Amino acid sequence: MLILAFESSCDETAVSVVRDGREVLSDAIASQADLHAIYGGVVPEIASRKHVEAVALLADQALREAGVSREEIDAVAVTYGPGLIGALLVGVSFAKSVAFALGKPLIPVHHLRGHIAANYIAFPELEPPFLALCISGGNTMLVDVRGYTDMEIVGATRDDAAGECFDKIARVLGLPYPGGKPMDDLARGGDDRAYALPRSHVADSELDMSFSGLKTAVVNLVHNAAQKGEAIDRPGLAASVAAAVSDELVPRTIAAARQLGRSTVVAAGGVAANSRIRADLERACRENGLRLYLPPLRLCGDNAAMIGAQAYYESQCSPYADMELNAYANLPI
């Protein structure tokens, strides 16, 4: 089954052709990161306009690189939530027009389900059930993946996402947007014990997390140092932040896997590219006898290949969408 997939939930426009949920024939991406960097974050209106400018050309590019014609496509897939509503609407509207023009079925895909499915591309042997740690700029959650389309959130952040925490702290430190990779690079040369930073505990739910306190603590630390004219150990602070975030994520991931009886753990999302989190997950899973799947860095960020991968399984379990399909800024997994 050949699926033409579209992703436009934030600031990457992406189009991919995927065969049978596992084989990527093309994956064309137009990133807006440099454009939004001058604002220190994504400007929704600008993101939407740039999606409009890029999506048609990327669709032609994806088909050309895959070596398939429009008529050979069996279905069209699109991210319909969650994300920036204007950005999502561009992708949904274009995908609906393509499906209508070609007379092909339309498959709506949840963005986070797509991130999880990126692992199916990298690891053809991977099958549910497993526990997924989904960590990105907008979401942080533990998901029990009981089947390809049967999922349940068992733990999540109560406020900020892990990726948002990295981005906001990066801005305070004067690092470029997006802040994840610059923070990771800076932390590599730092002492992760340089600063004592808070770790959250949610009293009524041991698998839930909170990152707002960590973000506020670091912002206050940097501002207080500036007011006193004191120097900040920037590598040490970045390393301490990475350690604090990892200490929130990794123990809860192991605890959730044990509670659910899962022997396999999967990481997904942009923050899954963080070197400290990857290393800590590898060590913890090894010590606890769990099999771990970490997506390659190229599949951690937003892309359309992951949407095409998940769409294949959605098509087997859910009805196709009609031309009334809408986009949703918030959407349960």
Strand proportion: 15-25%
The Cα radius of gyration reads: 20 Å
- Characterize the largest beta sheet: strand count, sense, and whether it forms a barrel: 5 strands, mixed
Total helical segments: 10
User: Which series of helices and strands comes N to C?
Assistant: EEEHHEHEHEEEHHHHEHEH
Q: Structural class, from helix and strand content?
A: alpha/beta
State mean pLDDT (0 to 100 scale). 96
What is the total tally of β strands?
10
Q: Poorly predicted ranges (pLDDT <50, ≥5 residues)? A: none
**How would you write the strand order of the largest sheet?**
3-2-1-4-5
Approximate helicity band: 40-55%
- What's the overall geometry? globular
How far apart the termini lie comes to 24 Å
Description:
The chain is an alpha/beta fold and 333 residues long. The protein has helices spanning 33-37, 44-66, 85-102, 111-122, 162-172, 180-187, 212-228, 234-260, 275-287, 305-317; strands spanning 2-7, 12-19, 23-31, 75-81, 106-110, 130-135, 140-145, 151-156, 264-268, 291-293. The strands form two sheets. A five-stranded mixed β-sheet has the order 3-2-1-4-5, sandwiched between helices. Strands 8-7-6-9-10 form a five-stranded mixed β-sheet, sandwiched between helices. α4 packs across α10 (305-317). The longest helix has 27 residues, at 234-260.
